[in-house]
Amino acid sequence: MTNEQKYKYMLILLEGQLSSEKNDLANLSNAAAIVKAVMDRINWAGFYIIRENTLVLGMFQGLPACNRVELGKGVCGAAVTEKKLKRIENVHDFIGHIACDSATNSEIVIPIIKDDVIYGVLDIDSPYIGRFTELEEEYLVKFVDKLNKYIDWSKV
């Protein structure tokens, strides 16, 4: 399969999960697992959810991660405060990068925004510099859009 075919399959898997289960925690747990299973050359995939003006670790796949990230700090915190997707080719060049896993060399962070409210981020890390492209951006935005169709973020 090409990467694009894999990412289309990833969206099909997510739709199947979300349409057949109503529990948001179960769905987010499996969403992280779907990303980790389908995307190659990544070492971490998961969610940080905003709680009391801090990003708090949510469901994920990978090694243990930072429990909390201040808004505006690191790639995830910057994505939240700027309400903007961050695709970082080399995290070591990102001023203020937070190294939760020293193996990570590139990162993509998609803000979770629904009805103009930001609830957190989908964060994916890779040990490879320059791992993420416009193709991953496109499909991960679609992934978050699909989550927004089903997840009540205010209750997560």
The percentage helix is 25-40%
β-strand amount: 25-35%
Contiguous runs where pLDDT drops below 50 for at least 5 residues = none
Order of helices and strands: HHEEEHEEEH
The biggest beta sheet reads: 6 strands, antiparallel
> What structural class do you assign from the helix and strand content?
alpha+beta
Write down how many β-strands occur, each being a DSSP E stretch of 2 or more residues: 6
Rg, nearest Å? 14 Å
Number of helices: 4
Gross morphology is globular
> Alpha-carbon distance between the termini?
34 Å
Spatial sequence of strands, sheet with the most strands: 3-2-1-6-5-4
Question: Average pLDDT, to the nearest integer?
Answer: 96
Descriptive report:
By secondary structure, the chain is of the alpha+beta class. The chain has 4 helices and 6 strands. The longest helix has 18 residues, at 3-20. The relative contact order is 0.19.
